[in-house]
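#lab-general

N.A. 3:47 PM
ok so I finally got the sequence cleaned up, no stray characters, all 394 residues accounted for. can someone with queue access submit it? mine expired

B.Y. 3:52 PM
send it over

N.A. 3:53 PM
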Amino acid sequence: MILTSDSGFGHRSAANSVARALNYLHPDEANVFIINPLAGRSVPLIIRKSEHDYDRTVLKTPTWYRFTYEISDSRAASSLVESTLVLSLYRNLKQILDEVQPDAVLSTNELFSAPLGALRRYGKQRFPFFTVVTDLADVHALWFNPNPDLLFVASEDVKEQAVGHGIRAEQVVVSGIPVDIAFARGNLEHAKMRRQLGIEPDLRTILFVGSNRVNGIYKNMTYLEDLKMPFQVIAIAGGNEEMYAKIAARQWKYPVHLEKFVTNMPDWMAASDILVTKAGGLILSEGMAAGLPAILIDNLPGQESGNVRYILEHNAGARVENRYDFLAVLNRWLGNNGAYLKTLTEQVRKIGHPGSALEIADLFWNSTHSTFERVTARYDRNAAAYFQGKNDIH
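B.Y. 4:20 PM
back already:
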């Protein structure tokens, strides 16, 4: 059973990626349930409402969001929050566990660690329990609850944070944020994938990925009309109807391929050279898995500020604030026949985790058949090598 939520795309996407990996690795054995416990009727209305209001809160009142994030970002404050979560979610989670009777439980949301720990202690529930942390760099203290048997994290930086909050080092696995298993196909030829997608195969390709939370996609696309070199753009609106209509209505001075929403993001990334988006943990993890240097045009306060720092510190992209910054970055990256872009791409691939979901699914599955010590000891944690023979990932 995989527990997730819909407060943000990352939690649900991570759950879907691990579920797909389980079904891929064990197609005839795995029976995977993805459940959002926050949707239960026994959950207090204020918690259910906060999930639905998440987008509006972070977009309309970012200062308030930053304040509440920072004031609760400590183990002491998180312990108080966890007591409330146990009282609020215990009943609904117990009903779910009684109904599903899972062999193992994985969570992609920080809200479930304390209630699940209480269920294992007081409800006499016996199951291996893992948590996947879906933030890339600056992780809220609420994630670092000691109840999970294993904590999957994005980077060594996050592992250090976990240990600093009292989590044992052997509990923490640096797996990367789980992304679609199609990223584990390896580095595909750009031109070949562009032909498959019906776009110009021989042009440098800039991928814009938006959503209802991303500001600046249209504005930065207009800046590109001053770029003095051949290129094309893929613009994915991510369900943002207003942005889609605005881009569709304009006559662009360069080739633009526009999509309202896609379910095959690994293909579009494999066709691209550069990613332009906001600093969300999921989209950046997908970009790194595909080897795409990122130009960040927006970020939310809190954890996404850490994501910006992570990208900059690892020389995996740039943060731009205006037309001058944006064009200066692109001229440097695309100039000299893309020589610097090639260097950046190689650097991004070093920190990407294309096989993250497969690694997590493998450990998750084997937790039901052997002890954690035996599972983690035999696993070399190099997903690319471990899954080298699996070329049938689509």
